[in-house]
């Protein structure tokens, strides 16, 4: 089974990162439907280390302001929803519920470096799934770095022990008028061995 051109356009070919947001809200049901898609994406050992904090109130986004680089303030404050994409360094504690190989837990519990590396890598992967799932549901997504992770963690993640990776603005963007930026050609970015 493969996607038709319309679906490929929605996900890749015509999808664009928004420059400005409309004021159309993103309902909680859409946020929940979004996660229901994201959680189905594959991760190493079915570890599912990503953790998402959805900031939908203006108050919550204001609490993020001091962590943002100047170039991201307006993008965040005007987005209907901002997602803190993070990961749980202790993701392996859920292995018994996720049906993972029982021996995997001991590998990660005994090696903090391996656990952090695996959580970061797979959490990043799940953040990318979130972008694609958002597009599939008709939302626009604006991924961002350019923030102080320590402030974000102290403000939003302290009680959880989660680590911040990047931010994603979600909503309905105004049509993008600027041309798409260039991309590398296959021979510049790929090798077939």
Automatic annotation (TrEMBL):
UniProt keyword list: Oxidoreductase
InterPro entries xrefs: Nitroreductase, Nitroreductase-like, Nitroreductase_HadB/RutE
E.C. designation(s): 1.1.1.298
Transmembrane segments: none
GO molecular function: 3-hydroxypropionate dehydrogenase (NADP+) activity
Enzyme class, spelled out: oxidoreductase
Domain Nitroreductase: 20-172
UniProt-recorded name of the protein: Malonic semialdehyde reductase
């Amino acid at each position: 089974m493969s996607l038709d051109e319309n679906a490929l356009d929605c996900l890749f070919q015509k999808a664009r990162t928004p420059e400005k947001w409309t004021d159309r809200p993103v309902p909680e049901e859409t946020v929940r439907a979004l996660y229901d898609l994201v959680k189905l994406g594959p991760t190493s050992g079915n570890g599912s280390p990503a953790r998402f904090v959805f900031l939908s109130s203006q108050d919550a986004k204001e609490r993020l302001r001091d962590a943002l680089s100047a170039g991201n303030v307006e993008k965040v404050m005007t987005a209907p929803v901002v997602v803190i994409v993070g990961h749980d360094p202790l993701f392996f504690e859920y292995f018994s519920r996720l049906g993972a190989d029982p021996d995997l837990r001991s590998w990660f519990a005994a090696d903090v470096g391996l656990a952090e590396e695996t959580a970061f890598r797979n959490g990043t992967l799940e953040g990318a799934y979130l972008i694609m799932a958002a597009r599939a549901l008709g939302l626009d997504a604006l991924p961002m770095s350019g923030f102080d992770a320590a402030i974000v963690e102290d403000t939003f993640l302290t009680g959880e022990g989660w680590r911040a990776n990047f931010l994603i603005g979600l909503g309905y963007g105004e049509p993008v008028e600027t041309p798409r930026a260039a991309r590398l050609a296959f021979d510049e970015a790929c090798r077939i061995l």
